[in-house]
Structures are given as structure tokens and as C-alpha cells.
Write a structure and sequence with these properties.
Layout lengths: L8 E12 L24 E7 L15 H10 L3 E9 L2 E8 L6 E10 L10 E9 L2 E9 L6 H18 L15 E7 L13 H13 L3 H5 L3 H7 L38 E7 L7 E8 L11 E10 L11 H7 L2 E10 L12 E6 L10 E2 L10 E3 L5 E3 L12 E8 L6 E9 H10 L8 E9 L2 E13 L6
Parallel strand pairs: 1-2, 7-8
Antiparallel strand pairs: 1-11, 2-4, 3-4, 5-6, 6-7, 8-9, 10-11, 12-15, 12-16, 12-20, 13-14, 13-17, 17-18, 19-20
């Protein structure tokens, strides 16, 4: 059954492949870009995230994208081009697109973060590539996290994720730059999360046999109960706000270097190789997973590649169909976001000797004039700071049509004021479309304005709650 996009929406079919190459030259790279569902001709974008991708080879690179990605480009054919390629140590990340999309891809940036020894060694870490396709912003991230089994290494992996988010999600002049708030983040890699025995008293051999028997029985639901990453996400210790299509396939590590699923007894079989994603609230329904599965025929590595095929809607934001107001007219005619009340609670302390000195910053790339910054005054030494209506800025937009709020989010940063450098406590995201819907569903103006408790998140970890009371105002026509 064909999946139809809304009128005026571009539909992108994106293939994501993550693979730990095992530092051995792959025999065949074509399978990395051959979709398990559909045909190559149906794809729009291909993203490859590789780990341990250095090896001796007689092949000579003819360009700066490297020998391996040159072979990938040949496999894709003449109608494709390399949008961006980034390397860090043994890690590689590449984005390829159909040439017909070239005029619609813009603002391409990349960044890296090392998490190896002393954050200098490049054996572990992450690479990020940010780009706009049509008017949709993507960040693709490929990572190689800390290895080995045990609680110590599980905590190291969570720490790696936080460090990569801190270092890689920084494409503007600061972490508060609107460019750092993409519509979709797609995260892939050898995440190295392992299988946890339900009975830790069992010997290694018995644990290996227990997991292998679940694999042989294709009992994926029971296997997920052993999966570290599933546990960590459920407990909100990492990747808060991200989701993953449930794995319904054999673990991809640790394999004998042969075709098929033949497991080495050196390690307990595990779903080390994963693809996750996170979308802003107004775009949460725009991503559909068509396929999520490993490529069993690769024989050169102790990991199997994992491939996800995503169908992603790329609508044109309503605000881009409107003519912005000139700054001189915005005060009288623009739509306003009126924050009536704000409270931050359950936050980690950034100051050792006192409570945080908090202030709020309001961020949106499309709605606000680029030279206008909206923030509150500082609430000094308060555990749960509260801002009344008189202490909150009136957020003036560039548009007079209140419909532009339907597909927009307001990002709010909770900051700790500091003498040397202000600290980010966390970010919250308010779906303005929900606010507009609430106002339109009110039976009378006497009903309460929109109130929501928003989770504060920083670097994929929870860090409190931001409660907002908000009203949207049109100065041109009543809603």
C-alpha cells in the first residue's frame, strides 16, 4: 500500500546503514546501499555510518571522500553525489543524495567529538552532519561508544552519548543558536550496549547459552528484556526523547567472520549496532520505518551491518508561505506569544555553594527576527524559580497570520547565570500547535489558558521540569 504525503509535502525515502567494518577491507560495498525493501531507484538519501573503517588496501583514493566511499558512490551510480563526508580516526560518516535534490539541499555543516582516552584518542566518539533538505533540518550522527560488558561500561556508554551531544550539537555561534534545533536527529552506530543476564550468578557459558537459545527461538520480546539500551532508555538514563523501532532480528555482534549468523563464544550475542531517531513534537508523525534489519551476508567483520529505511515527510512550514512583516510594523500587527507564568523545578544544582541563578531564553528560527533575543531576568539562588507575567518577555513574531503557529515549536533554555560562563541546565520544547488547538477548543474565554509541564532535557538526560502557561495572540483578527 502506497503511503501518501499531504499536499505540498515532499516525501523522502532515506536509507541508513551503520556498520563496524572490523578494520578489514569489505568484499562488497553495494549491499550497504541496496535497500532490503524496494529498489535503489526509489531512494532519495543514503547515509552510511562506519566504525573501525581503516584497513590496508591496494586501492588508491582518487578524491578526498576516501577509497571506500568512492566505491559506494560507484555502486550508487551516476545519478548520485556525495553531499558531505566526515572522518574521525577510524570512524566515517557520509551522506549521499540523488543529484536531482542538489538544488534543495543547503546549510551543510559537520562536527566531531572524541570520547577516547582523555578525549583526545579518536578510537571512540561521534560525527555529526547537519543539513536542510527542502525546509526540513536533519542531523545525522554516527557514533562508536565504549565497549565491554558490565555496569561500569554501561555507564561509560551513557556518558559517551552525553559528551557527543554536548560536542556535536553545536553548529551555530553557541548552543542557543536556533540552528542547533533540528526537526529530526537520526543516530546510528556501534553503540556497544550489551545483553544483561537476568541471573548474574550464572557462569559466562550459561549466560551465552541462555541468550543464544532466545535468538534461536526468535524470541525477540524476551530478548529485549536483556537489552541494556532498552533498559537505559526506559529508565530515562540516556537518549531521552529518542525512539527506536523494536529489533526483531538476530543480534549483530559478536559474529564469526563468515556469512550468516554464527556467533563467537568470546562475547554474549548483543544488539550493538542500532539506529534511533528523535523528532520535534510537530514533526513526530513525519517519520515512518519501512524496514529495520541486518545484512547477514557480510563476512569480513565480527559485526553485521544494520539498515533502516525511513519514509520522512518534508513539509513546507506555513510561515514560509507567508510574507514576513517588516520590523517597523511588527509591534502593531504581529502575532504574539504571551507567557503568563513559568516555573522550573527538580533541576540539578550547578552552583556548589548556593542554588542556581536561573533565567530563561526563548528560541525559534522561523518566527522571530534574527536580531531580537528574548530572555527573562535572573532569579538568584532559588531552588524552584518562578517568573510571573510581568517578568516574562512578550514574544513578538514576524507574522500577522496566527496559522503559522500550527507547525511551530518554541524552544526554551533554562540557564544558570555564572561569572565566567553561563551553564545550560536544560532545554524544553513547547508545541505551539497544541496551544493553538487548545485556544480554539475553548468553550468560552473564561476557560484557563494553556498549561503544560515540559520535561527539561540536556544531552539526552533528564534534568527537571519547566511549567509554562501560554497564550497566543493575534493583533489582526480574533481566533
Amino acid at each position: 500500500v502506497a503511503i501518501m504525503a499531504a499536499p505540498g509535502t515532499h516525501q523522502l525515502r532515506v536509507l541508513i546503514t551503520t556498520w563496524n567494518v572490523g578494520n578489514k577491507e569489505p568484499d562488497d560495498v553495494k549491499q550497504l546501499v541496496t535497500p532490503l525493501v524496494g529498489h535503489l531507484s526509489t531512494l532519495d538519501v543514503v547515509v552510511l555510518g562506519l566504525q573501525e573503517a581503516t584497513y590496508p588496501t591496494a586501492r588508491k583514493a582518487r578524491s578526498d571522500i576516501g577509497e571506500l566511499f568512492e566505491r559506494v558512490l560507484e555502486a550508487l551510480g551516476p545519478n548520485w553525489y556525495a553531499v558531505s563526508v566526515k572522518m574521525l580516526g577510524q570512524m566515517r560518516l557520509a551522506v549521499f543524495a540523488q543529484s536531482k535534490l542538489r538544488p534543495f539541499i543547503s546549510d551543510v555543516h559537520s562536527s566531531v567529538e572524541r570520547t577516547g582516552v582523555a578525549n583526545v584518542v579518536s578510537n571512540k566518539g561521534g560525527i555529526a552532519i547537519r543539513l536542510d533538505i527542502f525546509q526540513t533540518t536533519f542531523v545525522f550522527v554516527s557514533t562508536h561508544l565504549a565497549a565491554h560488558e558490565g555496569d561500569q561500561y554501561r555507564a561509560e556508554r551513557n556518558k559517551d552519548v552525553a559528551e557527543i551531544m554536548e560536542g556535536c550539537f553545536h553548529f551555530g555561534s553557541s548552543h542557543l543558536d536556533p540552528e542547533n534545533f533540528p526537526d529530526h536527529v537520526i543516530w546510528m552506530g556501534d553503540l556497544n550496549y550489551r545483553m544483561v543476564p537476568l541471573d548474574a550468578s550464572k557462569s559466562f557459558d550459561d549466560q551465552w547459552t541462555e541468550i543464544k537459545s532466545l535468538v534461536d527461538a526468535s524470541n525477540w520480546e524476551e530478548l529485549r528484556k536483556h537489552d541494556e539500551l532498552t533498559q537505559e532508555i526506559a529508565e530515562r538514563r540516556v537518549f531521552v526523547g529518542f525512539q527506536e523501532e523494536p529489533a526483531r532480528f538476530s543480534p549483530t555482534f559478536k559474529m564469526e567472520r563468515a556469512a550468516g549468523f554464527n556467533y563467537s563464544k568470546q562475547r554474549i550475542p548483543a544488539w550493538c549496532d542500532r539506529v534511533l531517531w528523535r523528532s520535534i513534537p510537530t514533526r513526530a508523525e513525519d517519520v515512518r520505518i519501512l524496514s529495520y534489519a541486518p545484512l547477514p551476508d557480510t563476512a569480513s567483520s565480527d559485526h553485521k551491518p544494520v539498515q533502516a529505511i525511513m519514509l520522512i515527510d518534508a513539509p513546507t512550514p506555513l510561515c514560509l508561505k507567508e510574507i514576513p512583516l517588516p520590523p517597523k510594523d511588527s509591534a502593531e500587527n504581529s502575532c504574539l506569544i504571551k507567557v503568563l507564568y513559568a516555573r522550573a523545578s527538580d533541576m540539578p544544582k550547578k552552583d556548589v555553594a548556593s542554588e542556581n541563578d536561573c533565567y530563561l531564553v526563548f528560541i525559534n528560527r522561523d518566527l522571530f527576527f534574527s536580531d531580537r533575543k528574548f530572555k527573562t531576568r535572573v532569579k538568584t539562588d532559588q531552588k524552584e524559580p518562578i517568573w510571573a507575567e510581568s517578568e516574562l518577555p512578550l514574544l513578538t513574531t514576524r507574522f500577522s497570520n496566527i496559522e503559522v503557529f500550527k507547525d511551530q515549536c518554541l524552544n526554551i533554555a533554562v540557564m544558570d547565570d555564572d561569572t565566567l560562563k553561563d551553564d545550560i541546565i536544560g532545554f524544553a520544547t513547547l508545541n505551539l500547535g497544541k496551544v493553538l488547538q487548545h485556544q480554539r477548543s475553548r468553550l468560552s474565554r473564561a476557560m484557563e489558558p494553556y498549561v503544560e509541564d515540559l520535561p527539561l532535557v540536556f544531552n539526552g538526560q533528564p534534568c527537571g521540569t519547566l511549567t509554562l502557561c501560554v497564550e497566543l495572540i493575534s493583533q489582526v483578527a480574533s481566533i
